[in-house]
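Limitations
The structure tokens in this dataset are predictions for the assembled complex, not deposited experimental models. Users should treat interface geometry with appropriate caution, especially where small molecules or nucleic acid strands are included. An illustrative entry is reproduced here so readers can see what is and is not provided.
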Amino acid sequence: MPKILNIVETAYRATIEEQDDTVLWLTHMLKNAGADISVLLRANAVNYAVKGQDASGLAFGETKMTHPPEIGKGVEKMIQKGVPVYLVEQDVDERGLSDADFVSGIKKVKREALPELIDQHDQVWHW
Amino acid sequence: MASEKTLTIAIMDAPYESANSTSALRIINAALEKGHNVNVFAYEGAVNLTMRAQQPHPNPVKGTSVEQEQHPTTKDWVASLFKLASTKDVKLDWVNCGLCVDERGAGDWIEGPRRGGPKDFLDASMASDATLVIPTK
Amino acid sequence: MAKYLLIESRDPFDSSDSQYFPELVQGISDRGNDTVLFLVQNGVLPVRKGSKYCEAMSRLIRNKIKVLADSFSLKERAISNLVEGVEIADMDRILDLLLEPGTRAIWH
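Predicted assembly:
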């Protein structure tokens, strides 16, 4: 099975879609379908690995969002399922984040090491 | 003449909101013209590209009528791509992601596309000569 | 050595993240890979001579990376005075490159 790397960089686009980030959700589904898949979070998407994200409380008129996305938990679940999740180290630093902020199991990779990471995969899908 | 090669392309953008849609249609068109088979996985807003209810409209800025505007909507472009595939005797397999369709009310589409999901994209990709993902921003 | 077709559709004026993709292209090439950068949509804006970002393109070209610019995108933006070394190409070319066996295509 070819190795796939999903690179995610845009973040918090689809809060009202409920289901997680659209590409992280897709990654879960592809994994369930048998894909050998990893995730690289870069730019603002490094924030997806932060503990304690809370998108609850949205209501428009009388209609409430009863199941807000739980992206941090989704990332944790992904790791538990065996999907390697990488963060770009400099993107983390530039956003004032540290290891203590993240869910467990994240792997950090330096920006200059991205070509090597990419070379280790057969397909690289940049979202 | 068919090339026997297959390209799989994943797209996400809703009609008219991004230059990505233009580029995607250009790539699909060029691929079919060259005799390649094409699998399209329309994800998220891209499922709106094939909605049957799209209507052309006059242009009040230009002062043109519907007839004068001759304005194909994206469903017309896609229908034309299916026709091109048929003419070239190659396959255009257009999958609209089912859950994305449901939450957008985009289920009434032109002849040609079919309902599917992420597994269809994975299977298509694994069986293709090349895969291209065109993300939304 | 692998083959890479890297497609830049975004323009560097859009965000401060503008160095990411040219650096990635260079890094992939530095690892000995056969690397082509194809500029499309607003990604062609830096190749207009005199653009603030045309040096980034020139640098890639000096480093022996093939830089192609989509003919339709150039025409749409009335860009005719291009940085030296950029080659004008069209979607047929992108397809030929894409479908070369073993090519990894990354669209940004």
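Some entries come with short summary sentences. For this one: The CA atoms of residues 49 and 83 of chain C lie 5 Å apart.
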